[in-house]
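quick one before i forget lol
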Amino acid sequence: MSLAIFDLDNTLIANDSDYLWGQFLVDQGVVDKAYYESANATFYEDYKHGTLDIIAFLNFSLKPLADNQPEQLYQWREKFITDIIKPLLLKPAQQLIAKHKQKGDTVLVITATNRFVTEPIVSLYGIDILLATTPEFIDGRYTGKFTGVPCFQEGKVTLLQEWLKITKHTLEGSWFYSDSHNDLPLLKLVDNPVAVDPDEKLASFAAQANWPIITLKK
């Protein structure tokens, strides 16, 4: 039994849930349209180019959680999942997850997008284990801060290694599926790295390293 690790955005779903959540907040009138839309797009471009300041981005993206009551946030999230995310689920991704489960593999998702946004998405795929950036929640409210290490680039490796120590799992025979060059630190660590609909930088690296390159979007 091996680990089958999946990135989420643009791997298991056909877009980026972090960016889409920001756009959803704009469309719902929750945040200032001009400022938030511009900043959200800039951060997303930084992410794609590998230059994202993750701390600055988290300060930006987690602020709406602190600015609103949890009950209202959960209502917005439910609408976001129904209207925006469900149409982006990928049948080939569901089939790949099922294949690993049938083999007896332990399936988990590891994502930079925060747990508030991603937990219900991962549940739609029937996956119980999620490693993600965790928003701080104190006295019944989100604070706008995060706890622990951001689950991004090398941070994914750190959080996975912490989880391995706790659970006694190993990386022997492990798989990791991702679309992003930001995940190269973890892709290089597993036994079976797989580039999924990869960005240009990851596609180039995967080709040179003779890693499998697959699509889950068709």
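fyi The chain is about 50% helix and 15% strand.
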